[in-house]
């Protein structure tokens, strides 16, 4: 499938899991009715609150996975489920984990956020996500064969360009950046970094975001889709909702045949590789 419609959900998630899931289900139904073949959700899509360990789930098997699996089967959709908190048997801190669910309702891949958001902002909050979240240790891509080859990341990961280049070199042409970005950083960095990741890798970037007032900050919103030339082809307003974008993989190949950012690298001078024995499709 060379052209298809992607839906991006912008959420104002709260600490009410059932309510958040009901809202997500409604948006997924809307996206399917509008012709989406894939639906992408933001970081912390099912829960934003202070008691994250209590809301962590098994993946697969938990409440959120079961609902998303049913919706994927019902509408024959690929679902990128933003991120939820995943139980961690070896640590009281859960993982911040992306689920990818195929149109048969199966878990196609999961990715645990690599880079916790540890910052001290001069005109904003001090946040140490690593106190509450256990980082993952693997880069994950998944080739859907019908709606692109996906590179997975979450929010603060976007500042570490090495992982996106590595995913592009491994075949990724859609880079996902679900986020719960602060207004303090978002007003200056969100669009700039997303467009950079698209341009430097010749990829579409799909970035669903949280909006609204959160326990520690105001979320920036501005969910968007960026094409491989760096154009913003879809952007959400301030409120929660669904925005649609057409993904054209033929156009992506045309861009890559004009600017050879992947081929013109100098691996004889510098190199980029995975560390250890990583299965790129799994956690």
UniProtKB/TrEMBL annotation:
Pfam families on file: CN_hydrolase
Signal peptide: none
Key words of the record: Hydrolase
Superkingdom as given in the UniProt entry: Bacteria
Entry keyword annotation includes Aminoacyl-tRNA synthetase: no
Family stated for the protein in its record: Belongs to the carbon-nitrogen hydrolase superfamily. NIT1/NIT2 family.
UniProt GO MF annotations: hydrolase activity, acting on carbon-nitrogen (but not peptide) bonds, in linear amides
Keyword Acetylation: no
Name of the molecule in the record: Carbon-nitrogen hydrolase family protein
């Amino acid at each position: 499938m060379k052209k298809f419609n992607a839906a991006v959900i912008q959420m104002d998630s709260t600490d009410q899991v059932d309510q958040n899931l009901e809202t997500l289900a409604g948006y997924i139904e809307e996206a399917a009715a509008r012709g989406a073949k894939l639906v992408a959700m933001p970081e912390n899509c099912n829960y934003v609150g202070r008691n994250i360990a209590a809301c962590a789930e098994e993946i697969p098997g938990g409440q959120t996975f079961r609902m998303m699996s049913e919706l994927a089967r019902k509408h024959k959709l690929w679902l990128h489920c933003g991120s939820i908190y995943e139980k961690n048997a070896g640590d009281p801190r859960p993982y911040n984990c992306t689920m990818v669910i195929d149109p048969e309702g199966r878990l196609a891949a999961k990715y645990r956020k690599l880079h916790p958001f540890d910052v001290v902002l001069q005109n904003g909050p001090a946040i140490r996500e690593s106190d509450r979240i256990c980082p993952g240790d693997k880069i994950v891509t998944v080739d859907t064969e019908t709606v692109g080859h996906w590179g997975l990341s979450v929010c603060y990961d976007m500042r570490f360009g090495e992982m996106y280049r590595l995913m592009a070199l491994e075949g990724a042409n859609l880079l996902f950046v679900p986020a719960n970005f602060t207004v303090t950083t978002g007003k200056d960095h969100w669009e700039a970094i997303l467009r950079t990741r698209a341009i430097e890798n010749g990829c579409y970037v799909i970035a669903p975001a949280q909006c609204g007032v959160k326990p520690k900050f105001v979320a920036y919103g501005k969910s968007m889709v960026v094409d491989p030339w760096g154009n913003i082809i879809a952007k959400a307003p301030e409120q929660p909702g669904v925005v649609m974008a057409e993904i054209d993989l033929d156009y992506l190949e045309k861009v890559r045949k004009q600017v050879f950012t992947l081929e013109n690298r100098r691996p004889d001078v510098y190199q980029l590789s995975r560390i250890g024995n990583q299965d790129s499709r799994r956690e």
